[in-house]
Specification:
By secondary structure, the protein is mostly helical. The chain is built from 8 helices and no strands. It has 2 domains: 1-93, Rna Polymerase Sigma Factor, Chain: A (Orthogonal Bundle), CATH 1.10.1740; 99-191, Orthogonal Bundle (Arc Repressor Mutant, subunit A), CATH 1.10.10.
Amino acid sequence: MAEDQSVQVTQLLRRWTQGDEQALPALLPLVYKELRKIAHYHMQSERSDHSLQSTALVHEAYIRLLGGQPAGLQNRAHFVAIASRAMRQVLVDYARNRNALKRDGGFRIDLENLDNIPVTGNAELQCLDHALEELSRLDDRQARIVEMKFFGGLSSPEISAVLGISRATVDRDWAIAKVWLHRQMSRTVSP
């Protein structure tokens, strides 16, 4: 049954990228549980009084996906990575709008353990988002790998499949991106 559902997801993704506006609403029930899990992961690192809940975050990301131009989505993992990125953008926009803290707020993100750290505040999220935007301008693939690993929770083999590159390249780019982000954020956030 899981294989049938995977085939159905792939077919719906193709239809959506070809302009079928009904494909995304048909796709949502098939991936909703997974999207809620990712939203819950994102929300765990948010402040306790955040106005969004996991369900609302999924819906906000869905609205953004509806309004956007669908990329050449390859499979379920690729779609989930794109949806996770939309969730991150929603949270960053909320953090920017809240604007309750100074730019750095005195917070630090330890990028040595980037894949295991929570981002716990608006200032941290904004700082990481800004650094990711800069990394994206320098090396889009590395930025996408960070987004997929850190925000999407995808594994190296899943990222490899989505990007069509080897796992070794994913792991190498991940290591380089962590070092670059650490340096960049060390400059941005002063002790």
